[in-house]
Amino acid sequence: MPATIVVGTQWGDEGKGKFTDLVAKEMTAVVRYQGGHNAGHTLVVDGETFTLQLIPSGVLYDHITPVIGNGVVVDPLVLITEMDMLTSKGVDCSNLLVSGDAHLILPYHQQLDALHERHLGVNKLGTTKRGIGPAYADKAMRVGLRVQDLLDAKIFRQKLDAVLGQTNKILAKVYNRLPLDADEVAAQFLDEYLPRIHGHIGDSIGFVHGSLAAGHHVLFEGAQATFLDLDYGTYPFVTSSNPVSGGACTGGGIGPLDIERVIGIAKAYITRVGSGPFPTELFDDVGDLLVDLGHEFGTNTGRRRRPGWFDAVMMRHAVRINSVTEIALTKIDILDTLETVKVCVAYDVDGVRHETMPWHQSDLHKAKPIYEELPGWQTDLSGFTERSQLPANAIAYIEFLEQQCGAPIHLVGVGPGREQYLHFAA
């Protein structure tokens, strides 16, 4: 079956949006399969910047049907705002499909998210406070409201009253907050939001399988990345869903045999936002340079990202977990001015060399990177469009990453623009 998955292989912010947009040219549909508006994708097209949070990157192509899958949690106001932004820039959103099985983010989810993070104090997780975690928690507790519930006011109100009966007690007795008014919430969602998105709600699973059965190519787009995955990430400093390629099955409605290609997106260095272990983190001038040249500030939050050297130990693990068939390497141009570049090839944990990810969190927290140092290329790569134009040292760096990671690098990004990339595969 012609299904392709694009997955982040680090801690997010690898540039998935750009390469999803690029690969989408070959597709007829792009499906977002997990997460919510806590993830931002930035695309630069003809000098114009598009920042997307919920709508799949493929929306910028007229021939694409963008789908928000059943595994996503949706804040209707954010969705409507994003649709209006795109429409104002001449992008047609009329064929956007939102799964009726996707779960809704409600006002109390955002309140609980912020309150819980604040009460964790020094142990805070670094959440975006967008209500993502509490919405997924309600889904797991089987008290969540789904997008399809908006289509039946009676069912919506029954479910809302049931969950607010418990949630308001928590807000009042645990956090000393005023309870939410069910009438106000219902009016907001049913009278304000529903008319705007009613025509977009439907059967995403039926659409996806109809497309695959017809031989059409469908792209599945994850938010966040492998090491923010609820099961495979650096728990508890993770997101509340499964960004790994397997998440496309549960969150996009496909089976494993439908998948023929998994593109792992990796940055030529590495960053993360929020708390958690980071073996190759840099606290020096090189780290500051990566942040400044790479504009490493959160798309949604504006928070400064934590920079570090490329970690091949992590990448090997990501290739294995996701069954990565090829890698798209981004932002190599940010390293252009450096005399030397480093790659972490193993960890030292209490004097023992580890070439695979330690399974125990305590080992990861005290892991020290073992580096290989390579000569830099000190050449501006931003205008290059072919492998043959690359300096020998840049080619050597990319080939070294291929060797270390265990998967071929097919595409290399040399700038933020849609056309700033080159094919590296021989």
Give a structural overview.
The protein is an alpha/beta fold and about 425 residues long. The chain contains twelve helices and 20 strands. The strands form five sheets. Strands 9-7-5-2-10-1-11-15-19-20 form a ten-stranded mixed beta sheet, sandwiched between helices. Strands 14, 16, 17 and 18 form a four-stranded mixed beta sheet that branches. Strands 3-4 form a two-stranded antiparallel sheet. A hairpin with a 2-residue loop joins strand 3 (about 40-45) and strand 4. Helix 3 packs across helix 4 (about 130-140). It is globular and about 65 Å long. It starts with a strand and ends with a strand.
Short description:
The chain has 426 residues and is an alpha/beta fold. Helices cover 33% and strands 21% of the residues.
User: Can you count the helices?
Assistant: 12
Largest sheet: 10 strands, mixed
Q: Indicate the radius of gyration in whole angstroms.
A: 22 Å
First and last CA, distance? 26 Å
Total number of strands: 20
Low-confidence stretches: none
What integer is the average pLDDT?
Answer: 92
Portion in strands: 15-25%
**SSE-based structural type:** alpha/beta
State the helicity in percent bands: 25-40%
* Strand ordering within the main sheet: 9-7-5-2-10-1-11-15-19-20
Broad shape: globular
Quaternary structure of the protein = single chain
